[in-house]
Amino acid sequence: MNKNSINISWSSARQICIVKTLANSGHYPTRKSEKEAWFLSPLRSETQASFSVSLTKNLWYDYGLGKGGNIIDLVMAINNCSAYEAVHRLQEKVQFSFCPEKIIQKKNSVKIRNVNVIKHIALVEYLNSRKIPLEVAHRFCQEVWFSLNKKIYFSIGLRNDAGGFELRNKFFKCSTSPKTISSFIRGFARLIITEGMFDFLSLKKLNNELFSSSDIIVLNSLGNIGLIPEKWNSYSEIFLLLDNDPAGRTATQQLLKKFSNAIDESQFYFDYKDLNNMLTHERMEK
After folding, report:
1. Residue (of 58, 55, 59, 76) closest to 68 by Cα position
2. Which of 144, 175, 206 is where one domain is finished?
3. Domain range spanning residue 59?
4. In angstroms, rounded to a whole number, what is the distance separating the alpha carbons of residues 42 and 136?
5. Which of 37, 59, 92, 152, by CA, is between 20 and 30 Å from 18?
6. Would 15 be classed as within a structural domain?
């Protein structure tokens, strides 16, 4: 391999998120805390997770093998390849819109450049990896090109109620200002509250009947719970479909206290972190 073909720096490659890289290969944590995530080892067969990833340092360690390292070391171990080949593999994954995990996003630093129908192959492939049909994404989302820290990126965008966008691609997520909820109010008696755009899109695939007969709110951030007006107590029922993690469960309890008509429906995906995690695993199992 020509060393000159490596266009991203070693330091940039090391910043690529290990957890997201594992997820893109179908490996998801069996348990997770604020500081670490535990996986069944991608390097060997095991029934009890002993592969740890530090969420603060972006490093991994396989206790069964007694070895660990950074993302480059992991790609080398998984693919039995050299360091240069590992960086090349990582480059192929990020070449369409690389954005380091530790990027500093200042207020109003994201500037929208163009908004189109989703058609870029990288975004179509990303939707495929999340098991979201393109026709569903076309109905609710757009392809958004934007500048951030003097560089141009593109992403799938979900517009919020204030005209801003939630932006997602394979390697990072961010949003424009103002940041608020995304409402899909169509006059139904039932309201559904989801946490993020992929939960919203996944519900369309998993239960189209429920999706099509309900008003829906996408929080876009758990911090937006306070923006939900009291008048929504007028719904006959409010289904809560938030993440099965500590933050999601805490938010669910807050909403159950706030709305007497709220129902925790997370048992629908009790074995999974969220609706999209259920969708991707369900489709893989089939």
Report:
1. 59
2. 175
3. 3-94
4. 32
5. 152
6. yes
Work out how many domains the chain is built from and give that number: 3
Count Cβ atoms below 10 Å from residue 129 Cβ, excluding itself.
14
Lookup result for tokens 């965008």? 157
Asked if 268 and 240 sit in the same domain, the reply is yes
Instruction: Show Cβ contacts of residue 82 under 8 Å, excluding neighbours closer than 6 positions.
Output: 1, 76
Structure tokens at 175: 């949003």
Contact 145, 156 (CB under 8 A): no
Given a cut of 90, whether residue 60 has pLDDT beyond it is yes
On the question of pLDDT at 31 being above 80, the answer is yes
In this structure, the answer to whether residues 166 and 195 fall within a common structural domain is: no
- Asked if residue 236 and residue 199 are part of one domain, the reply reads yes
CA within 13 Å, CB half, 56: 4
Q: Which residues pair with 111 in a beta bridge?
A: 147
Q: pTM here?
A: 0.63
Amino acid 118: pLDDT: 96
Is residue 6 a contact partner of residue 88, using CB atoms and an 8 Å limit?
Answer: yes
Indicate if the pLDDT at residue 163 is higher than 60.
yes
Q: What is the pLDDT of residues 137-149, one digit of tens each?
A: 999 999 999 888 7
Q: What is the DSSP string of 186-250?
A: -S-SEEEEESSHHHHHHHHHH-HHHHHTSEEEE-SSGGGGGGS-GGGGGSSEEEEE--SSHHHHH
Say yes or no to pLDDT of 221 above 80: yes
223 and 266 part of one domain: yes
Supply 123's token pair: 């975004």
How far is residue 142's CA from residue 27's CA, in Å, rounded to a whole number? Answer: 28
